[in-house]
Specification:
heterodimer, A: about 425 residues, Rossmann fold, six-stranded parallel sheet, B: alpha/beta, eight-stranded mixed sheet, six-stranded mixed sheet, 18 helices, 14 strands, about 35% helix, about 15% strand
């Protein structure tokens, strides 16, 4: 599709943060011009307010005020970048007031709500303020969104970023550090805590946070329960024989919760070519066939499957390869972003609005500059027909010092703005 | 030896007003100057020891874009290879910001771009605040830029003391904008009065030279028609007939130069030719008056002054009338009455610890107290002495919370470890201003200057 400008608004922290970064990479890979609002840069100040030790109402007031400021910073970026779409990830710091302003100014907004609607029930208050609302659950959520006044909602499942989630050649040291027969990476939700107590007979490692206070699992929790970086996660996936993927649930009655949405780990593990055992989810068959993913529906089934697959390297390999092939075909962030942008284009007449472009570069533009510009656009992953203005915007974000060629293009752009754009 | 790069992409006058900075930087290293190609021949004459890096920054027909792009690409490669220790990026313009991307942000002074975000240092930030109320503007542009240097030369070392040299009267026609200039009849009366006054005193070279570009030739003809025959007979019209070198040669021996606020005025001051500045409309002596000792400025004073030249004047350029009054013409002809010229301030140049000042010899300057307060604060900021309690109220308006709270906004060389107290104890020569500016009195958000129009014929 036509290259567009997308401002990706990252949350201050949390699980949707890496997903926002994957979206940015995917959009840039597709040749769109991407600007990122770095929500995490504001997290430190927000945390400081939380630790103020002041009366709660004062802290509430200050937190709201702070989030208004952050939201204004997003608006400032919108004013300078003039995006075709503001793509916010769940928990992005955009207040309703800011969203109203964007709507008034005709700036399209989309939220990719990569959360469970039953846990993050605040969606009701915010969803109607977005022009497009993408979710990882289908009905009844889509129906509820429509009832709440959201005109343009779509199901947009999670995905993987193949340039990042990929098979790795690990060193022997890395294999020792990150590997085990069985591992799980994720937070210590109630159902997982209860379920994993039954797996202590295996060479089983638990990675991730929020596992404290559980003596039975204490010895299995790695790195003292510290958060694991996305880079290390890929190493763990690659180093593990059987990756457990048990979706979360806040209640411990049903250890295998059997919900609907498919978590990002499912796609990421598959993209890594890593073998996984994943609990059955209502929406999983939409995305993977039975020969692509090994599933379980109960703890008994899980233990049976573990015993089987730990002794069947060939079966593991075949299934992991099939899953990886499926992800590469259908479940990449690039594909998701294409779907989202196509949805926006279909539902919003005249989108993207034609942009006021500068005059084209003259035919007799010096050949060495033409070639230099072409090489630069390839390097910046911009399509050959990308507007000169997009090249300039992307160049301005680069770390300095820039090369003579790059600076001279910025200079030419400024010169044309000043003298040639009539 | 340190290597300094100054990026000055503005006009003729701005190039001359960069002199204090260039002279200061030359004291401890090699100075490179990036400027518009049209001004390179002039810069070669004015700054013979400076290495020039011309770019095409001013307007040109679109058909010339290929040649312009090729030339500027080569210039950018040349600048990138310089490996400058410090880069003084003087103008608040997109063109300057584009060039700043060639350098490590840590070596930038003035204005720069870093990761897509524009930055300016604190000194420049302060200047942007004080030019919001131009009437109170405390500092000449020459000093503002000059004080960016770590060890600025004193104001007295910039230009020679201006003295008449027997070469006659120079008259500069038009400024960049006609509204800044006197019409021929008013200018003729001023020339007549000035010539009369000089005859009453030490005399003058009994010739009058009209200076300007070819575009000003019609005004020269009109002026000749408006002059008394005796004066017209001694007048030579040089409009469109002086290249840069001719202009320097012509200006240097003059007894006085009658001029609006122009590049030629600054060139005359550079050469030590006494200037009589005729300042009206947008021209404001305290911002861009002639630099050095021995100059005078006749500054029109109205509530609306200085105005924004690009906006239409709702008062039919009423400030012009101050130059037509009999009181002013009497004053100019050295017949001093107790009745001072109305709507006018007479200013004589002087120097203080920061640089040039304009001392009123007549007229009322209601903003003097505020201006002096700001000037004292600027000196204090530079470590040149306490501003005193009287400046406290002005300080409250000048300084913002972020100055107080965000220490790292101060330039690195401004004593982060020593503290201001230690700095005050240092000798004045250690005074370290910060970095870079904007293109001057036109205000923080003004676009970069258009190409000059008051330059000689061979510079176009």
């Amino acid at each position: 599709m036509t290259p567009v400008r997308v401002l990706v608004v990252l949350p201050l922290y949390g699980g949707s943060l890496p997903i926002g970064r994957y979206c940015s990479t995917a959009l840039a890979d597709l040749g769109h011009t991407v600007e990122v609002f770095e929500g995490p840069a504001f997290h430190g100040a927000f945390t400081a307010l939380k630790d103020l030790r002041a009366p709660r109402d004062r802290v509430d007031y200050l937190e709201n005020g702070f989030l208004q400021v952050v939201s204004q910073a997003v608006l400032a970026k919108v004013e300078s970048f003039r995006p075709d779409l503001v793509l916010a990830l769940a928990q992005a710091p955009l207040t309703r007031q800011a969203l109203k302003r964007l709507r008034r100014d005709g700036v399209a907004t989309a939220m990719w709500f990569v959360e469970d609607r039953q846990l993050f029930t605040y969606w009701r208050a915010f969803a109607p303020h977005y022009d497009f609302f993408a979710v990882i659950q289908r009905d009844p959520f889509l129906g509820e969104l429509a009832a709440a006044g959201v005109e343009h909602a779509l199901y947009l499942p999670l995905a993987a970023l193949p340039s990042f989630h990929r098979p790795l050649e690990l060193t022997p040291v890395e294999r020792r550090r990150f590997g085990s027969d069985v591992s799980f990476l994720g937070a210590g939700y109630a159902n997982r805590r209860a379920a994993f107590k039954r797996l202590l007979k295996y060479d089983f490692r638990i990675w991730g946070s929020d596992w404290d206070g559980d003596h039975a699992l204490e010895g299995r929790v790695q790195l003292g329960g510290a958060r694991v970086s996305p880079e290390d996660a890929v190493k763990i996936y690659n180093a593990t024989t059987v990756n457990l993927n048990l979706h979360s649930s806040v209640q411990s009655r049903d250890l295998v919760p059997g919900g609907d949405f498919v978590n990002p780990r499912t796609f990421e593990l598959a993209a890594c070519g890593a073998f996984q055992l994943v609990d059955r989810r209502a929406l999983l068959p939409m995305h993977f066939d039975a020969h692509e993913l090994a599933t379980f529906g109960s703890m008994d089934e899980l233990e049976t499957a573990l015993d089987y697959y730990l002794d069947e390297p060939e079966a593991r390999r075949e299934m992991a390869e099939a899953a990886r092939a499926r992800v590469l075909r259908e479940h990449t962030y690039q594909a998701r972003m294409e779907t989202l942008l196509a949805f926006v284009a279909e539902r919003r007449p005249g989108w993207p609005a034609p942009r006021e472009a500068g005059p084209p570069l003259p035919e007799d533009f010096p050949e060495d500059l033409k070639q230099g510009l072409k090489r630069l656009m390839e390097e910046l992953k911009l399509p050959p027909d990308a507007p000169f203005e997009d090249v300039i915007w992307t160049l301005r974000q680069r770390e300095q010092p820039l090369s003579g060629l790059e600076a001279s293009l910025l200079f030419l752009d400024e010169w044309r703005k000043q003298y040639a754009r009539k | 030896m340190r290597r300094h790069l100054v990026i000055q992409l503005a006009r003729f006058g701005d190039l001359l007003q960069t002199k204090r900075l260039i002279r200061s930087l030359q004291r401890d290293g090699e100075v490179h100057l990036c400027l518009d190609v049209s001004l390179a021949p002039l810069a070669a004459l004015v700054y013979p020891d400076v290495i020039l890096h011309p770019v095409r920054a001013h307007g040109a027909p679109s058909a010339e874009i290929p040649a312009l792009a090729a030339r500027n690409r080569a210039a950018c490669e040349e600048l990138a290879a310089l490996d400058a220790d410090a880069v003084y990026n003087l103008n608040h313009s997109g063109l300057n910001l584009a060039l700043s991307t060639l350098f490590d942000p840590d070596c930038m002074r003035g204005h720069w771009l870093d990761g897509g975000q524009t930055h300016r240092d604190q000194w420049t930030d302060l200047a942007f605040r004080w030019v919001r109320v131009r009437r109170e503007s405390p500092m000449n542009l020459m000093d503002f830029w000059g004080l960016l240097a770590d060890e600025p030369v004193g104001g007295g070392e910039v230009n020679p003391i201006a003295r008449p040299k027997g070469g006659g009267i120079g008259v500069v026609l038009a400024g960049r904008n006609a509204r800044r200039s006197l019409p021929p009849d008013a200018l003729a009366a001023c020339i007549h009065a000035a010539a009369t006054g000089m005859r009453r005193g030490a005399g003058f070279g009994e010739k009058i030279l009209l200076l300007g570009t070819t575009a000003e030739h019609p005004q020269a003809r009109a002026l000749l028609g408006a002059l008394p025959p005796a004066l017209a007979a001694m007048t030579t019209d040089l409009t469109g007939r002086t290249g840069w070198a001719d202009l320097l040669e012509t200006l240097a021996p003059l007894d006085t130069v009658l001029t609006p606020d122009t590049g030629t005025m600054h060139l005359a001051a550079h050469l030590g030719a006494p200037v009589q500045g005729l300042f009206l409309s947008s021209a404001w002596a305290w911002e861009t008056g002639p630099y050095g000792l021995g100059h005078r400025v006749w500054q029109a004073e109205r509530d609306c002054a200085p105005c924004l030249e690009s906006a239409p004047c709702p008062f039919d350029v009423a400030c012009l009338e101050a130059f037509r009054t009999k009181e002013f013409l009497k004053f100019l002809s050295a017949r001093f009455d107790p009745q001072f010229p109305p709507g006018m301030m007479g200013l004589a140049t002087n120097l203080d610890r920061l640089g040039v000042v304009y001392v009123p010899v007549f007229g009322h300057d209601p903003f003097a107290a505020r201006r002096n307060g700001l000037r004292a604060l600027a000196a204090e900021y530079l470590g040149l002495g306490d501003a005193g309690a009287r400046a406290t109220e002005i300080a409250a308006a000048l300084y913002q919370e972020r100055d107080w709270m965000i220490e790292e906004r101060r330039p690195a060389r401004l004593l982060p470890a020593l503290g201001r107290g230690a700095r005050r104890a240092a000798p004045a020569s250690d005074a370290a201003p910060k970095s870079g500016p904007d293109s001057g009195p036109t205000g923080p958000d003004s676009p970069p200057a258009p190409p000059d129009t008051d330059q000689p014929k061979d510079s176009a």
